[in-house]
Amino acid sequence: MSETPKEHTIKRSLNAAVAAWYPAFSPAVAGHADLEGLIKRLVERFPEPNDRIVEYDGKSYESRGVLPVKDGGVSLHLTAYSPGDKINAITHGQKTDYTNLVSPPENTDFIEGELMVYVRGNHVIYCSFGIREGRLASYLWLLAKKAKIPQADFQFQVKHRVLIDKLATIQREGVKSIKLSGVAHSKNLKVAAEKAVPETLMTRITGSAVQEIKAFFEKSGRTIPSLENALVDVVFRFDAKKTPNLQGELQALAEARLSETEDASDDDSFVIETMMGNKFKESDTRIHKEYEFTKYGKSANFKLVSEKMREYFGEIAEASGDGKS
Length: 325
Hints:
Layout: E1 9-21, H1 35-45, E2 53-56, E3 59-68, E4 74-81, E5 87-89, E6 100-102, E7 111-120, E8 123-129, H2 135-147, E9 156-160, H3 164-173, E10 175-183, H4 186-194, H5 201-220, E11 231-237, H6 246-258, E12 270-274, E13 279-281, H7 282-285, E14 288-296, E15 299-300, H8 302-320
Antiparallel strand pairs: 1-8, 1-9, 1-14, 2-3, 3-4, 4-7, 5-6, 7-8, 10-11, 10-12, 12-13, 14-15
Helix pairs in contact: 4-5
């Protein structure tokens, strides 16, 4: 069998996580909730995909694929789109330097992002194509509201499962520093100016940093430079003499952050350095597996990804012995 050409494939990570409930919001639910059962409950309430649409942050979110798996679990295909949005396209054969806006066909919308998820009990395997994994909780919460199901049942967060050996190294060696990096852009300025609730920690940090720099230039009477896309680095570093109490706080912050998904990154925007000089990006510590899928538009075929997620869950369950709960 011939291999699929590289230009026809797309690489993605299958990531292992777990649904964790907020006891403060749902004390009666935390400890015995079952995300798999809750998803199936919503699908029973809304069997038609068009009924599973919710509006969030200016976009429509819809679970177009929900596949119960025979040997347990459920797969869900979450899509995002802006109703009626056009896309910029090139029309070949035209004698013009301009592009054209193309409308979607009738009764159709262009997909802007996808999140494919396999859930078994409270265990989650996800593959992201433009939608962050944390959006799953928001979507299900809003869908529960639409279904008039108690929303406390859906007060959960998707938390990454962390490689024990990497976490043990961080715990054993201790945390010397944590570096946070972000890029300043107009959205950060808007968040900082309006004191709105930021989407991430770095949105707040970069927005505040830009505002401080602008104030410095205004005070000195100098022309304010363009700060669009400026890189902002913040480093918290332990110093035995100057900050003797900081090491414990950095340790706690690092360990807590590694399981978070809402602000998580795959690049160098959050880096932990241990007292022994070892450095870890967030992606270095997560339980995940790389796959190369045949392209299906800008993503991959949901049924194929679903099967791979189910297989990966089985591998993790077999290796850890705790995945069947």
